[in-house]
């Protein structure tokens, strides 16, 4: 398996970035994971991050799928705004009640 790293120079230190894998490499690694039964061992042997292999196995759990639908986010945002207004009102009422209670305690 060849290393398809794009090397980037940061202050004299070369770092790997955006490693790409061919479909053949992916299928070879996935077949090896099936045979060995341990992602970590295969990842270390092939010098591939465990998360990368895991994303090939479960693409639904990849970072890209964590983003929600904009409509769902809009509704969730509106609900949170409503809850915030409700809690702010409750907080204001409790503060006023505390002021009155504190005045009663001080007069005794």
Structural class: mainly alpha
The largest β sheet comes out as: 2 strands, antiparallel
Number of domains: 2
Discrete helix count? 4
By DSSP, the count of extended strands is 2
Q: Over all CA atoms, what is the radius of gyration?
A: 28 Å
Beta content: 5-15%
* Global morphology: elongated
Report on the architecture of this protein.
The chain has 108 residues and is mainly α. The protein has two domains: 22-66, no CATH class; 68-108. Helix content is 63%, strand content 9%. It has four helices and two strands. It has helices spanning 23-36, 39-46, 50-57, 70-107, and strands at residues 6-10, 13-17. Helix 1 crosses helix 2. The chain starts with 5 loop residues before the first strand and ends with a helix. The mean pLDDT is 82.
